[in-house]
Design brief:
Rossmann fold, eight-stranded mixed sheet, two-stranded parallel ribbon, globular
């Protein structure tokens, strides 16, 4: 499964923008669903896909706010959905399914990070529920629409933060261990990668390919909301005026650069015939040995780091185990 997990030499890089990677790609007639499409890099993802001709559907927890945010992008469809509310996911899926349309692209850009301990109605920890389980339920529900596309891509926006935690199968929801928001976030981002791997294995014969990615660190979004005061200034990610520093060489990107890898994964012809892989900087990422001392040292740093994907996040056995756990926790059948 990981044989193809190595840089392609895509010709794009850390400074590439969403417009750069989608240039010349025609999405007329395509339908895209972008969770988180009305905040952060999701807005730029929505804009770029729409500009290339796609009909973009944005599920949003706050429809009124999403309408304001996306007001300058004509004909984007906004519908209510909350990833922490299983019933709202089912309602979104039911409404979409009644339209009979296919889904050609599904970009899972919504997510939370650094949140205090909270649980959804099923008792699942909020990072795991929002970032992974909600998307698991959504993708399962939209399975018929993805198959109708006869060639679809599912893109999971993960993070280099996956280095913080593998899946803790003995206690994924912090019911017995002490809660730590960094570990909770890291576990949910590892889940994004494993989910894309197993989804691709299961659905490739139906024409559905899946990818995951690290977008970079985009300070001028909700990212900075949950970072302790003074940390961003200390590592040079925020200036004396409280503004995010754009320094792509260190992975600190603009919103347009941050959305580029999502858009590349969703649309690039360079990925035809591939799937289950993890990208960064608009290319596939190197595979890392999580026991390597140099990798361990880089993973412990906040700020600039040697990026890649941890081998445990692309383990097929772990991916299958997570799929079964997710079915149990959501009640979604295989």
């Amino acid at each position: 499964m990981t044989a193809d997990q190595a840089p392609l030499g895509s010709g794009f890089g850390v400074t590439s923008t969403a417009d750069d990677v989608i240039a010349g790609i025609d999405l007329n007639g395509a339908v895209a669903v972008v969770t988180g499409g009305a905040s952060g890099i999701g807005v730029e993802t929505t804009r770029a896909l729409h500009a290339a001709g796609a009909t973009v559907v944005v599920p949003a927890r706050d429809v009124a706010r999403a309408q304001v945010t996306l007001a300058g992008i004509d004909h984007v469809e906004i519908a209510p959905m909350d990833l922490m509310e299983p019933a709202s996911i089912d309602a979104f899926v039911d409404r979409f399914e009644r339209s009979g349309r296919p889904v050609h692209l599904l970009v899972a850009s919504a997510g939370i990070g650094g949140a205090p301990l909270e649980r959804d109605a099923r008792g699942n920890e909020s990072h795991f529920a929002t970032n992974h389980l909600g998307h698991f339920q959504l993708v399962a529900g939209l399975g018929p629409a993805l198959r109708r596309a006869e060639g679809a891509r599912v893109v999971m926006v993960s993070s280099w933060a996956h280095r913080s935690s593998d899946i803790v199968f003995d206690d994924p929801n912090f019911q017995r261990r002490s809660y730590d928001s960094n570990s909770a976030y890291g576990q949910s981002k590892t889940a994004n990668i494993l989910f894309a791997l197993e989804l691709d294995r299961r659905a490739a014969l139906d024409g559905i390919r899946a990818f995951s990615l690290h977008p970079g660190t985009i300070v001028d979004t909700n990212f900075k909301r949950n970072v302790p005061e003074g940390v961003l200034e200390a590592v040079g990610m925020m200036d004396e005026h409280g503004m995010g520093v754009i320094d792509p060489a260190n992975g600190w990107k603009s919103v347009a650069q941050g959305a580029a890898t999502s858009v590349w994964c969703a649309t690039s012809p360079q990925l035809e015939g591939l799937g289950g892989l993890y990208a960064q900087d608009c290319d596939l990422a190197p595979l890392l040995d999580h026991t390597d001392p140099d990798v361990i040292a880089a993973a412990s740093r906040f700020g600039p780091a040697a990026l890649g994907v941890m081998d445990y996040a692309l383990d097929p056995g772990t991916a299958a185990r997570l799929w079964h756990l997710s079915e149990q926790l959501t009640g979604v059948g295989s």
